[in-house]
Amino acid sequence: MLLYHGSSIGNLQTLQPFVADHGKPYVYFSTNETAACFHAAKIVERPYYWYPYGYDPTGKIIYTELYTGAFEEAYAGKRGYLYTCELPEETLLRFPSNPNARLSSVAVPVARTEEIEDLYAWFLARERENKLIVQRYDSLTPEAQSCWYGKILEDLRDASDNTRVNALSVFVRQKMPAIWTRFESEMKSL
Question: Using CA atoms, how far apart are residues 120 and 112, in angstroms rounded to an integer?
């Protein structure tokens, strides 16, 4: 099975498991190269992450811009690396909430590397090729905004751990102050 891994780190010959927000070390893969490339830039420092994308009913990736200019800000001028690996399906773990994600608990040799000079330009090419849908902020319905903002509030609650100073909270406070204000109000009422 062909698998893809996006990274901001180049020249890797082997992908090593690392601890993310799941508490155990894994190498994270996608069966979709576009989805993997979202992870080739760090928007929020680990162990937090910021990748507002999902899939339509046909499996096409939809990136949702949650504030004006977010997509360009996240990826323009940033170099990334798309690693391709080949592994038997039975050696991988599935990620429950993402049908295209696969996990490996052991190191995986890299079969091929693509260096991407500008991730934003690369994504715009995928959009023109109809491999990616980008929902720009100004086109979002109030329902879509509400759904995503609810998810962000959940992530903030999960990340708070009795502190409001972490990479995710700083990011939300700077980029989406209305959501941060709502979160602060909720925390005061607890």
Answer: 21
